[in-house]
Structures are given as C-alpha cells and as structure tokens.
Amino acid sequence: MRATSPETSQALGQRVRKPRREWQGWQFVGPFALVFVFVFIAPLAFALYLSLFQNRMVGGNSFVGFENYVAALSDPQFWNGFIRVVLFLLVQVPIMLALALVAALAIDSARLYASGVFRMVIFLPYAVPAVVAVLIWGFMYGNNFGLTANINDLLGTDVLRPFSGQWILASIGNIVTWEYIGYNMLIFYSALKTIPAELYEAAEIDGARGFQVIKAIKIPAARGAIVIATIFSIIGSFQLFNEPNVLKPLAENVISSYFTPNMYAYNLSFAGQQFNYAATVAIIMGVITAVIAYVVQLRGTRKEDR
Amino acid sequence: MFNLNKGPRRGRGAAALAVAGLAAMSLVACSTGPGAGAGAGSASDLDAALEKGGELTYWTWTPSGEAQAEAFMKEYPNVEVTVVNAGTATDQYTKLQNAITAGSGAPDVAQIEYYAIQQFALSEGLLDLSSYDFGELEDKYTPSTWSAVNLNGGIYGLPQDSGPMVMFYNTTVFDQFGLSVPTTWDEYIATAAKLHEADPSKYITNDAGDPGFAQPLIWQAGGHPYQADGTDVTINLQDEGTKRWADTWNQLLEPGLLSDIPTWSDDWYKALGDGSLATIVTGAWMPGVLESSLPEGAGHWRVAPLPSYDGSAATAENGGSAQSVIKQSKNPALAAAFLRWLNSSDESVDVFLENGGFPSTTAQLNADEFLNATPEYFGGQEINKVLVDASANVVDGWEYLPFQVYANSVFADTVGQAYANRSDLNTGLLAWQDNLITYGNSQGFTASE
Known about the structure:
Strand content of chain B: 5-15%
Distance between the termini of chain A: 32 Å
CATH superfamily of chain A: MetI-like
CATH class of the largest domain in chain B: Alpha Beta
Number of strands of chain B: 15
Number of strands of chain A: 2
Number of domains of chain B: 2
Largest sheet of chain B: 5 strands, mixed
Structural class of chain B: alpha/beta
Structural class of chain A: mainly alpha
Oligomer: heterodimer
Number of helices of chain B: 21
Largest interface: A-B, 50 and 56 residues
C-alpha cells in the first residue's frame, strides 16, 4: 500500500511517539531473534573469544592475542588440508553441476519417458543420510571383499584401489557427486520450470532447434540457480567432513587427521584438547569461504545483469 | 519469554559445542559448580553411603554393564544406578573430557581404558581413591592391572578387565600348509614367509598400523619410550626395546608379509572367516569376541602364548579398562562404594565373566572352574590356562604418555605412513616422536627426547 499520503503517515508517526515503547515489533521478531542469537551469533562470538586464548593441559588458560592466528596461517597441516579441498572443489563441483544440469535439462525436455521416475531415482541418494551413504560406499570400496575387489577379479587387474593415496580423493568425489546430483538437479529443474511457454513458442517461430533453445533460453534462465548451486557447492567442499571422517577407519594411513580443514579442527579439539586453536582454524576457514562465496556471487550476478 | 538479556549467558554451552565443531553430543550447560568431590573421605564413609542411598550415573560400553548395575541395585535397594552407553572408547572420552571441562554433565563413574587414565588423572578429572583405603584392594588384582590404575602415588580407578597378549591361530590353515606354531618372532617371520609363498592370498596376520597394537608389542620388546615425571616428559621412540620391535616388524612389513586389512573392519571378519589370516595377535579378551562375531570360525581357532624374542615367556597388556570415579561427582562416597562393589565383589565379577569378559581379579582367574573350561569353539582346548599364564608374564615398568589419546590420534599421520609405503618403521617412529614432543611442549609439559 504505497498510496498513503505523506500527511497521514506523518500524523501516524506523531501518534506513535508516546512515552511508552511499543513492543509489538519485538514480539514479531522475538522468536526469530532468540533462536538467531542462540544458534548463530553466540557460537560465532564464543569462537572468536576462544581463538584469542590458549588453554594448556599444564598451566591453564591464558590470553594470547592473535598468536593462534599467526600459528594457523603458517601451519603446513592446515594448508595441506586447505589445498586438498580446493583441488576437490575445482574438479568435483564442475563435474557434479554439469551432470546435474544435463539431468535437469533431460527431465525438462519432455522427451523422456517416465521423467518422474528418473527425477525420483536421481534425487533418492540425497534422502539417504550422508553417514549411511558413506558406510554403504565403504563396503563397496573394500579392497579385498567389496565390489571393487570383484571388479578387479573380473578384469584380472589390480587397478581399482579406492582407498589408496592416489584414488582416495576421487573415491570421495564420487560419493559426494552421487549424494548431491539430485539436489542440484532439483534446483536447476525448478528454475527451468519458471520459463514462460511463450518464449519457447517464439523460439519455435524463429526456427530455433533443440540445442539453440538450450543455449539461448534455458541456460540463461537458469543462471541464477547455477550461481546459487555453485555457492552451495563451494561451501560444501570447504566443509568436507562426513565422507572422509567416516572412511578414515577403513583408510587410516591415507586419510590423515588433517585431511580437510574441518577434520583438522575436529581432531584438534576432540583428540588434542586444542579447542582454542580449533576455533581459530574454523574462523579462518569461515572467512575464506565467505570471501570466495561472495566473489562468486558478485561475478555471477554481474553477468546476469549484463 | 522474549527476554533477550538471558540469551548470551545461557547460550554458552551451546556455543562451546558449536565451536568445537561438528559432532552432536550431549553437553549440559548452565552450571558452573565445581562439583562436590573434594576427595576427603574414609573407608567407613562407603558403607554409610550405601545405606543412605542416592542416585548414580555410570558410563560404560561393557556388555555386562547393565546386568551388573541391576545386581547391585538388588543388593542395595536405596541406590539407583543409571547406566549410559556414551559411546565406545574415544567417542566416550570426547564427551567425558567436554563434561569435565564444562564443569558439569559428567557421570559419577566411568569406564576408561588403561592407556587413557593418566590423561584424565592429570587433567584433574578423576578422584584419587586412596583416602577410601582402596590400597587394601591391591591383592585382589593382577600386578599389571593394578599398576595401570596406580599413578603418581594415587589410585585413579579399579581394574575391570585385562588383555594380556596371546596368539590365536587358525589350526586348519596351519595343518593345511604344514606349519608349526611359532614360539619366537624369528619363527613367526619364517612361518609368515612360508605361508605367503605357498598361497599368496594368505597372510600370517593383518596390520595396517594401529597404535593400540604397536605399543603393546613395543612394551613386550622391552621398550620404555615414555617416561613422565610430573610435567617432565621424555619421549624416545628409538630406545633399545622400541627399535627391537621396529626392526623385527620391518621384516614382516617391508616384504609384504602383512595384510593391510584394518582390524575390526568388515573385510577383517571376512578374512578371518575364510582363512586368509592365519593368526591374530591380541588381548585375552578375544575369545568372547570371536565366539559372538565369528561363528563360522568355530573349531578352527586355538590359543598359544605370544611369540617372544628369546623364547622365554613375556607379554604385554593390550587394551583393558578400569572404572574411575569422576571428581565432579556430587556423591563421591557412594560412587566409590559402587565402584568397589563393581570391580571387586564376586557377585559383580561373576556377571562380568558370564558375559565373556576376561577379568583382572586373581580369585576369578585362578578358580578351577575357569581354568578347566574347555570351550568347543576352541576345539576343547583349555584356553584359559594359556590366557591366565599370560597375565602373569606381563613385562613390568611400562608407562603411557599423559596425552596418550592425542598421541594415538596422530599415529596414522606419522608411523602410518611407513605402513602405507611399506618402508622403515623407525622413520615413522621418529616422525611420531617429533610430533609428540612439539605437542607436549605446546601443552605446557617439558617434553624432550
């Protein structure tokens, strides 16, 4: 209702300016604000607070300023994990998003028989809890008795070693792709669904054929969704934890305690009692992730505006 | 309801949890009370506390935990014990350490493996039980288990079970390939080579690198890599005994005579079942595990003493736990009384035995019925005689680090690399040593080589 005249809104404003404060606004915002402060602001603030201290087994707690940050930024184990997730991000995310886009376009093309079934089957892995999914894959990856062992036996080779140093990142990438393809497909598919039918009609009249329609209409229309999915995937990659952590007992020597930054933070705090340092690592990763996600968003939306 | 002022203060526990990360755990917030357990008390307090009654929480993953608690409550109806399985081993230690750090939420009594006791005792988490005259209970236990709870002049728990190392072997495989049971490590290596040569799909045993396995073997070899005197810690993973183990194990690792299947994995049970692994070198608590988890192995397995370096009987403890009273307990006398009953009374230890445990109390270990048992699973062999013999041959003088839980968590990062590359274990041990010294110093210890 933008029709309110300046006079009435001014009059309202004067009436509102009473000595008693109005609490209605707070009551609407309150439930959200309460939860927000508890689960979002407070942990962040506490992590920041923790990261400025050092609690030793002998000698207790002491304020150390930015010492933890200096240590973390020059910690080879931290950067080792960081580079690993960046590599993972650069390889796995494009593959997963491309496959998800192809799946979404296929379902959207209306040429697929029983597309509803396809949609469900591709989405199904996302409904399996990540830990359970990784356990299932862990069985299949078994070097000696798993599915890969059977394939190796069948081919008479010893090539497939999912738990070896060379393969492990690809093995994890495979699991993550399997898990999240359906989720990303749904994001893309819902974006494609919003394209008005008139556009297709116009394209047909202009003589555009299958791939031209995809290139000129569908992909540009899905750009926003692609940017969003990319940001989610970047965050997901930087937070890689479940998959390597569940597989660790099966490949103890290959998946180190600092395999990813999140695993490093987890092991620092829970195996090493270094809560302060773990908080520091978590904050640094949070900042890096936020910066990269922001850059991607800026670039993505700028292209969209053009 | 919308009082936001309350927010930050009450959110603290939740905040700590979120920072520490990722796993969900139960950490009760809101209280900062230091707990009542100052540790002052005497033996007479215990019986009074049992009479008066109260409530206790007991964290354990022992299969018989629930049954033991019920038997206790039957005997002492005024006491109510809540048994909680808060996870196995390190999962539980994480929760326990968090509760101790947070100042509340810890149980009254908790199960802790021997290797981790020193760490919890040092961080002021456990109650010293010597003021309740627990020292008088010493004679009830095997020397090696008693020394594991007796640290720095205090008594930080009572032993539940023990795991003197022995060798389980698959007699069917041994017969098939005409192997004789090795009594020394040299013979063991020769047997390993002979078996693997005869059938490359078979291995003498598996070892993918496991600190809970390597350290007892170092212990058996006469190694004393860790010496702690207060906060002065010496770490020498190249002392004579440690080197002896590493040089011996290299002869199995480097030529590929060890299977790299991780112990306790699904593949491992399959490999044990189909005869791919001819021996298991492990603690005396293994029979119960085999019977329940490997039914297809019935009749195939036998027990022999652990191979030694010079042919004379020597072994070490692999695993085993004690129960300890947590300092935070609001009712330390009652907790101590429960613990005393739990790990020293015949009623309780018998329940533990029925569930397949291997106790630490000499009375049960030396009972005729126990010694003469001939379980069918082991082809009627009197296995307990071999196991009890082992419990008397544990090399003494072993000490764990005061930060052993951390040390074990970085074993794979360091020594594990030698396993992965099938290269010299001594190199891996040195890397581990460097890591531990750095960590020790960063935690305020004076750690040196």
